């Protein structure tokens, strides 16, 4: 595996490859040609071959790709077999939506706890996960370290919450607050932002292409 | 404005430009140099100049960009002044998070109604918006057309819900269901996907770069 050579554009496409390969695998497909995979993903076969060659490329001329093997390889590169753990800060609507509906385990993560300041939420488990008070964050993470902290807190406490997570030694922050976090002050923590507004504005552009 | 020449990569960056320019505008900044804007956005000045030149580029040598004017121009290109309207299908946790917390108006959209099948949710307005039964979708949209339908329904009804929205004539679908929609069957409707899993797996990759 030559991971160090994978460009960030390819990395951004890898989760999508994983989704498609996982669907194929679950549907019982054993092998697939680059052109068939390309068609189902709306890419070109040469793009697929180029992307997959970045990490060894298991395609064989006249055979195509072994779906299970390629799926496993992509999962490995994405770090889905590292036993990553995760805590969620903020058990409001969005936090709850993730806790109750997001398939963390299928993505290689184990959700260990949620934190909130609302006394009505603290103490009552959600989706099998304890909801603790934010005051307990440092003690909890001292006992039970987490790879990732998910930020679904209100924007006004986003930066402070991120700093507390960084001080507790998380490796990554999954940021839903729509605030830009000061990465230089977060001691090497990797930040991945989910900006709903950026996505909606892209759609807005697409449906506004005709002049007024 | 030479919109037709804007590449999709630039389009994807425009919402982020808008966010930064809006922050600057609200903070009272009148003008900014490409290098200062670049620094605040983690890009290079030449990247900024190249991106902004795609749509007329209002920078002046020795002056920089007029923040209010550039913000307005980016908003215009993104279609933020088109009086877009929007309905939400699915008023569960995620739908509710959007209805109650997402700043639709600040992004140029007016949320007109939400739809669900749960009798406990139907009838009780959320965030000032009526929650109607899914059975009423077609009648409602016949009277009051919407530019965009937001899909926050369970995955198993995602495709069927998208087809109903397309039949009602929406221009775009903002898809949170993690299902790939059959765009070829959606009669020209533009689809923008928010794939939480793709984002988490990208973070997973970033925190897994060291070999096991």
Helix fraction of chain A? 25-40%
- Helix-strand category of chain A: alpha/beta
**Main pleated-sheet profile of chain A:** 6 strands, parallel
CATH topology of the largest domain in chain A: Rossmann fold
Return the domain count of chain A: 2
How many DSSP helices of chain A? 8
Weakly predicted, low-confidence segments of chain A = none
Tell me the CATH superfamily of the largest domain in chain A. Answer: NAD(P)-binding Rossmann-like Domain
Q: Separation of termini of chain A? A: 51 Å
- This entry's quaternary arrangement is homodimer
Describe the protein's architecture and organization:
The first copy, chain A, is α/β, with parallel strands linked by helices. Chain A has 2 domains: 3-77, Arc Repressor Mutant, subunit A; 84-198, Rossmann fold, CATH 3.40.50.720. In chain A, 40% of the residues lie in helices and 16% in strands. The first copy, chain A, has helices at 8-26, 34-41, 45-53, 67-77, 93-101, 137-143, 158-167, 196-206, and strands at 31-32, 65-66, 84-89, 109-116, 131-133, 148-151, 172-175, 190-193. In chain A, strands 5-4-3-6-7-8 form a 6-stranded parallel beta sheet, covered by helices on one side. A two-stranded antiparallel ribbon of chain A has the order 1-2. In chain A, helix 5 links the parallel strand 3 and strand 4 (109-116). In chain A, helix 1 (8-26) packs across helix 4 and helix 2 (34-41) packs across helix 3 (45-53). Chain A is elongated and about 60 Å long. The termini of chain A are far apart. Chains A and B meet through helix 1, helix 5 and helix 8 of A and helix 1, helix 5 and helix 8 of B.
């Amino acid at each position: 595996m030559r991971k160090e050579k994978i460009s960030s554009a390819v990395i951004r496409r890898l989760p999508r490859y994983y989704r498609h390969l996982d669907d194929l695998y679950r549907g019982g497909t054993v092998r697939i040609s680059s052109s068939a995979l390309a068609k189902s993903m709306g890419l070109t076969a040469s793009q697929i071959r180029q992307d997959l060659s970045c990490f060894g490329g298991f395609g064989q001329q006249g055979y195509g790709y072994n779906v299970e093997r390629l799926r496993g390889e992509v999962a490995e590169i994405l770090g889905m077999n590292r036993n990553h753990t995760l805590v969620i800060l903020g058990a409001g609507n969005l936090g709850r939506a993730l806790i109750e509906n997001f398939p963390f385990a299928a993505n290689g993560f184990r959700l260990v706890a949620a934190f909130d300041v609302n006394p009505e939420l603290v103490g009552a488990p959600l989706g099998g996960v304890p909801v603790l008070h934010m005051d307990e964050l440092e003690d909890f993470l001292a006992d039970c370290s987490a790879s990732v902290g998910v930020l679904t807190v209100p924007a006004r406490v986003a930066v402070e919450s991120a700093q507390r997570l960084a001080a507790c030694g998380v490796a990554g922050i999954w940021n839903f607050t729509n605030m830009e976090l000061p990465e230089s002050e977060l001691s090497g923590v990797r930040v991945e932002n989910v900006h709903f507004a950026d996505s909606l504005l892209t759609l807005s552009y697409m449906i506004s292409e005709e002049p007024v």
